[in-house]
Amino acid sequence: MKDQALWYLENIDVTGIFCPKKVDAHSGNHKVFKKGEYIYMPEQSSDKIYFLNSGRVKVGTIGESSKEITKAILGQGEVFGELALVGEDQRRDFAYVMDDATVCIVSVDEMKSLLKDHNGLSLFLMRIMGSRVLKMESRLESLVFKDSRSRIVEYLKDLVENKGQRVGYEWVVHNFITHQEIANLTATSRQTVTTVLNELRTKNLITFNRKRLLVRDLEQLTQEIH
Length: 226
Prior knowledge:
Blueprint lengths: L13 H5 L11 E4 L4 E3 L7 E15 L5 E7 L4 E2 L13 E14 H10 L1 H27 L2 H16 L1 E3 L2 E5 L4 H8 L3 H13 L3 E3 L3 E4 L2 H5 L4
Antiparallel strand pairs: 1-6, 2-6, 3-4, 3-5, 3-6, 7-8, 8-10, 9-10
C-alpha cells in the first residue's frame, strides 16, 4: 500500500516550496537536529511551521504524573507545528527528534505568503489537519471500545497500511519503534506490548527486531482485532 503521508508529492512539489534551496544545516530556513534534541517544547512561542526533510520526529505531550503521551511519529515529507496557522499562540505539544533530522522551518508570515503564491498548498494543509483529526478520533474510539490487545494489533495493522512495503505476500516496515513508544501510542503498558508482540510472533504472524517489523499475513493479523 502506498505511503499516505506522501500522497501530495504527486500533485505539488512541497519539498521545493518549503526547501527551495539545497538542504544545508547553515543555510536559510534549513536546520539539522540531532537525535535526542527537542525542536520545540510546550509553552514556547508557536510561530513556525516545520517540514521534515529527513529523519523521524515524535510529537506528543506530557499528561498527569508526568506521563508522556505520544500523538504521532512523523517521517520524511511530513509537516508539523501547523496549529500555528490557526491561532495557537503557545505550543501545547513537544517535538522530539528520534533520529537525526533535517528540518525546513517556515515562519507563520512566510507561510501565509506561500499560501497566496501556491494554490495547492492550502488544500495540502487542510488535508493534513483533517487527516490528523480523523486519526485522533479513531484512537479515541479504540480507547473506548477496544481492549489493550486489540489496540496494539490495530496499531500494527495501521502502521503496515501507512508505512509498509509489500515484499511478495509479506509486508515490511523499516525503523520499527520501541515497545514503549507503541505503549505510548496505544495507551497500554510496555509489558502488555511485549506480551502481545511475542504472542503474534509465536503464531508466526509477525517477526520483529529493533530495525524492522515483518508481517507475514496482514489479513490474518487484521482478524486478531476484536
